[in-house]
Amino acid sequence: MSNSAVPDITPAPQTGGALSSTKASKGKVLSWAFWDWGTQPFATVITTFVFSVYLTSSAFGPKDEVTMKLAWATGLAGLFIALLAPVLGQGSDRSGKRMFHLRWQTWLLAAICMAMYFVAPAPEYFLLGALLLGAGNVVSEIANVNYYAAIDQVSTPRNVGRVSGLGWGLGYLGGITILLVIIALMGTGFDADQVRLSMILCGIWTIVFTIPIFRSLKDKPPTHPGESLGIVGSYKALFASIKRLWRVSPNTLYFLIAAALFRDGLAGVFAFGGVLAEGSFDFEFGEVVIFGVVANVVAGVATILFGLVDDKIGPKKVIVFSLVCLVLLGLGIFFLHEGGKPVFWALGLSLTIFVGPAQSASRSLLARLIPEGMSGEMFGLYATTGRAVSFLSPLMFGLAIALGVAVVGGTEDSAQYWGILGVVVVLFIGLIFAIFVKEPPKTHLPPEDEFAAARMG
User: Fold this and answer.
1) Exposed, middle or buried by CB within 10 Å (0-12, 13-18, 19+), for 338?
2) Residue 21 pLDDT > 60
3) Cα-based torsion angle of the residue sequence 98, 102, 104, 110 in order, rounded to the nearest 10 degrees
4) Fold adopted by 24-217+230-456
5) I need a surface site. Which of 131, 168, 328, 366 has the fewest CB within 10 A?
């Protein structure tokens, strides 16, 4: 392959790489951030607090058995994401159709949400539910590649932490709002029919609240007009980019590996949080929903505030501090699980303080490192490296439960709470790697950006 087929990825720290040098309008920033609000029902209602809890209920089989099956299905979905994300992200850069792809991916996610209505409460419907949940994870993550990449249209090197934090924060607040709407319409004593109806509401919510981003942000000119590499060519270009990235900016590649590990642990916290609340801490279904509302309030506010801190002290410090707290709190939940609901309310809510900031700071750190014209490809690689190890949290969660069954076998107690140890192990490994990532240098901003940043601040 000729070198012309592979874009130059030499970092440009003096200009902030792919980030804009001038501030976007507040309307564009909000429209970008509201995509997180609009698509949050899949993460909050479906993945964490309602559908996954419903799918691991006794209606579908023994609790430990269906929980482990769900963990394996989640890991398999991660494999598909790892294979697809880099090629699709690279294709968005080359074709200049990032927003076009984000639009159809968003609509497909909404359709998958609504299709979950057909998952009836019986063991024979578990496979359908797991397939839909897995497909939703694939589409959601691929859409995130294009959404994350669009941050270069709405942020500067000076305010990217705040903008990223605003998006994550509005996402959590959107999760609160959709849960409150569901409670207002259906109450807290969910039965199977109410769960299924809430899936339709989630799909409609996603369509309505993602309209602003498609009205405000338009496709950018392609990085390589008229060039189409195909699947094989795209992977060749990807590997060539990784090789060149290793040569000119190994710290960026090392960060991608570190982020893959700790982000998988962060995903595990929310993926299995509601399952643990109901299965190990005796929460009623309605209590899980209420916990979800409070957890999203805490997470949303914390993420927005930590976004301000990110721009002042740097994203690495935010990531490391958050991961240390998450490891300690996860261990606390395991060792104090016999305390029941009060323990999960106190420590589980404390966990939510640090998940969002670590995710947001990770995104803003990478945005600071990406060269011009490579946002889609680098965020595709970001998704790929994450999903290349996305089997870790589900696998470790399932293995930890299996270990717990062996340890407490013969008792009437469920070993499900052992799963938290698997997630803690992944977070700890990610923490160790993150410590050795070098903080990106603060860029020297041109006068016009200093003025724009000062006005936003």
Assistant:
1) exposed
2) no
3) 180
4) Growth Hormone; Chain: A; (1.20.1250)
5) 328
